[in-house]
Predict the 3D structure of the following.
Amino acid sequence: MTGRARPARRRAGDPWAALAVAALWPLAAGSAPAAAPFTVVGTAIPQSLTGVAGDAARGRAIVVSRQRGACLLCHAGPFPDEPGQGDLAPSLAGVGARLDAGELRLRLVLPQRINPQTVMPSYQRVDGLQRVGSAWRGKPLLSAQDVEDVIALLVTLRD
């Protein structure tokens, strides 16, 4: 057999990883409202997308869900009861000690602003995307409140 062996581990720039992430979002049409307005200041979106505090318990449910956030497809984290955590992206352990809420918000809403080559999806971006199914066009992956809930969880992950 000839040819090149496949690497055992996928790297963050791997286009197959992006395809896998996109395939795991079985959002129903109309399930998410329009994207929320936001302003980027430096490396953060300092203002809440909703003006309502996030709920860390709801955020955890989104993060560990393979259908909603799909975060653990690429990230590992301090969730010992969740099997099959990813290693394509940085660990979520200690993320709340490294980044503040505004920095986390930018990474969820517009991660390409931090790393233009990232395969992480923009959870609130709805324009400039390619190959988006008609049922999902114009709809963010998560609602603005879902994003705030995820942030409420992530800021607590300090160890």
Summary: The chain has one domain: 14-21+35-124+137-159.
